[in-house]
UniProtKB/TrEMBL annotation:
It comes from the Bacteria. This is 4Fe-4S binding protein. The lineage of its organism: Bacteria, Bacillati, Bacillota, Clostridia, Eubacteriales. PROSITE patterns: 4FE4S_FER_1, 4FE4S_FER_2. One of its GO terms (molecular function) is metal ion binding.
Amino acid sequence: MKLYELTFSPTGGTQKAAHMLTTAMGGASGAVDLTDSRADFSTVAFTPEDVAVIAVPSYSGRVPGPAVQRLGCIKGNGARAVLVCVYGNRAYEDTLVELEDAAKGAGFRVIAAVAAIAEHSIAHRYAAGRPDQEDEAQLQDFAQQILNKCSAGDDTEPKIPGNRPYKKAGGTGMVPKPTKDCTRCGLCAAKCPVQAIDPKDPHHTDKDKCISCMRCVSVCPYSARKVGAVMLAAVDVALKKVCSERKTGELYL
């Protein structure tokens, strides 16, 4: 059995949770970065003996559109898939069931699904520092249960929560803007998962392309990209009630 890690992780939280799981499963033989807008995913193919951990963040209870599109280019060829959705302590709603449909559409056999928590990518005080040691211990336990299922040759599909049709996708609208500290180095444009930032003029962002993933904010070496203070305050107020209580991960086998 070869284990692979496929992640759409603009700010690193999803990658961190997925890596904890795959490490506990024995370590990945290879990785596919679904955030790479310039990659040719049609060249990625698996075999029925492979296991793929497919991890995405939950954006307003849905899978990010680019992740669905790029996963659809990959040839699953009957490989087993362990789905992981990572959310910022609010809710993941239809993310896992949408990811299940996308994985099946790409030819994977879904054998397990995990909901994990990571620091909120916009309102960082929610789930700050997560996944933490407690989360890692839980993911290690999940990994062992998944390995036991694989060893038993059990390929039954888990019952994954969610709705079809999925909830309406939320609007973005939170487009980070450069501050006076911006040096126009272009790193944000190079790393943007949807090429929304003009590489010739990083001060210009296509708001129709932007998915509010906050990668440009997280990778800027000068901390020179920000979301407006008023908008951040509004998000903080909206999340306060639903995000204040610590949530734990869930496993579906």
